Amino acid sequence: MIRAVVVDVDDTLCLTEAVCFDLENEVLAVLGREPMSRAVHLATWGEPLLDAMPVRSPGLDLGRFAAAYQHVLRRYVLDGRLDVVAPENLHTLDQLVRAGRTVMLLTSRTETEVEHMLAPDHALARRVSAVYHAGNTRFRKPDPRAFDELLAATGLDPQQCVYVGDSPGDARAAGGAGLHFVACLQSGVRSREDFEPRHVSAFIHAFPELVDVVGQLDAAGSRVG
């Protein structure tokens, strides 16, 4: 039985790549640096921010960038420009919970980058039971050990879990850890051809399709059992 649905944040639960491109270029402007190109941003999308920024802006002082980034990030969140979870996506989480699935988030973001989503008054608070991020996990995707803490804390077998994400790195991490993986193509940043078939259980083109796909994976597992 599928007991847990684990959800990536960026371009899965929320559509964020285009907004993050603007946000990061605004921070670079604050620091007096040239903007990055969209092509470079797309090529490094899915990597932890501070791992990607030396490619996006060679020679960047990461300490200065991180400090300035926090200020701009807070403004984008307060202005409702970043991490907006669409109503239909919240409804999808509600459907999963009503079906008896535990919903968790797993992201490569730092704790500071997700702290606003951890607030007790956030829309996710009553829907998501746990959030795994760079502050409480030892490894990052695409390393399969990114799921170690989640699996240890829940006692779940990997085959009882589905991870839904948007990147080949998400797929490699989930597949390597033995989880089912659902690739979400809603952002349009990636296509089926970007993924290794052996790591992907299903593709969806919009997040709400996840409910039916998880049900199908559950039914297939029951028939095998």
UniProtKB/TrEMBL annotation:
<dbReference type="InterPro" id="IPR036412">
    <property type="entry name" value="HAD-like_sf"/>
</dbReference>
<dbReference type="InterPro" id="IPR023214">
    <property type="entry name" value="HAD_sf"/>
</dbReference>
<protein>
    <submittedName>
        <fullName>HAD-IA family hydrolase</fullName>
    </submittedName>
</protein>
<dbReference type="GO" id="GO:0016787">
    <property type="term" value="F:hydrolase activity"/>
</dbReference>
<keyword id="KW-0378">Hydrolase</keyword>
<dbReference type="InterPro" id="IPR023198">
    <property type="entry name" value="PGP-like_dom2"/>
</dbReference>
<dbReference type="Pfam" id="PF00702">
    <property type="entry name" value="Hydrolase"/>
</dbReference>
<dbReference type="InterPro" id="IPR006439">
    <property type="entry name" value="HAD-SF_hydro_IA"/>
</dbReference>
<dbReference type="InterPro" id="IPR050155">
    <property type="entry name" value="HAD-like_hydrolase_sf"/>
</dbReference>
